[in-house]
Amino acid sequence: MNMPETLRPLTMALSKGRIFEETLPLLKAAGIEISEHPEQSRKLIIATSNPALRLIIVRASDVPTYVEYGAADLGIAGKDVLLEHAAQHPGGLYQPIDLNIARCRLSVAVRKGFDYDAAVKQGARLRVATKYTQAAREHFAAKGVHVDLIKLYGSMELAPLVGLADAIVDLVSTGNTLKANDLVAVEDIMPISSRLVVNRAALKTRHAELQPLLDAFEQASRARAAA
Ligand code: ATP
Ligand code: PRP
User: 42-79 as b/e, with b when 16 or more CB fall inside 10 Å?
Assistant: First the structure.
């Protein structure tokens, strides 16, 4: 039997790795400590020092799904992930706060020496490998460039090196991954950061519990941006 809504702690969906690590200081600033760290435990449900809040650990790209279906009341996900999700589920999530964490940019990259401008000018169909098919489709459509999109789930940088694609659309932060693979960024599509997302029903039914948490996150992320 499911727990009655009023007894279930608020549930926040987070992914392991950089989002979790960058969220910890925000939780701390809100006075919330975790009971155990997901890198040291195989547990997927993590209690916090606030009995009214628990964390669940999911894949980064699954965060919007858990929140939209109400299995989590709120979560944190990158704008990259949210844009891809929104293409299938428009308006499904409330996005009140840009937390300014996990910052990077979505860029087009090619092999060093590949004449991207000439390829685009010639009007040839460009083969583009990416995990971010929606953002890529919109970007190239706005430029009037014809592309064949090849969906990948990771290691995009490999695609131009082995002849799978002419270009990739991927996240770039330090540029080290591109450099290590003899690729160069030729266009920035958009800046990316992670945002707090909230289930639309929970926003109404659990407003009194959610609002202080949203306020604390807002304050912590503002303080962080100003630091
Ligand atoms: P999945 O496990 O679902 O494939 P992932 O491997 O992309 O997801 P992470 O690498 O933890 O998961 O990335 C989570 C989010 O962090 C991304 O959605 C993006 O918004 C941001 N991000 C990804 N790479 C970087 C980076 N190099 N620097 C800063 N932020 C990044
Ligand atoms: C991301 C992204 C790039 C890399 C860019 O990968 O997909 O490969 O970061 O960062 P850089 O410009 O600082 O090198 P991530 O580290 O998340 O690895 P994964 O997606 O393959 O797990």
Answer: eeeebebeeeebbbbbbebbbbbbbbbeeebbbbbbbb
Radius of gyration of the CA atoms of the chain, in A: 20
pTM for the model stands at: 0.94
Pocket of ligand 2 (CB under 6 A): 154, 170-177
Q: CATH classification of 10-103+193-226, choosing from 3.40.190.10, 3.40.50.970, 3.40.50.300, 3.40.50.1000? A: 3.40.190.10
Pocket-testing residue among 176, 177, 189, 194, ligand 2, by greatest number of atoms within 8 A of Cβ: 177
- Domain 104-191 fold is D-Maltodextrin-Binding Protein; domain 2 (3.40.190)
Q: From first to last of its 227 residues, what are the pLDDT tens digits of the chain?
A: 455 656 789 999 999 999 999 999 999 988 999 999 989 999 999 999 999 999 999 999 999 999 999 999 999 999 999 999 999 999 999 998 999 999 999 999 999 999 999 999 887 799 999 999 999 999 999 999 999 999 999 999 999 999 999 999 999 999 999 999 999 999 999 999 999 999 999 999 999 999 999 999 999 888 877 77
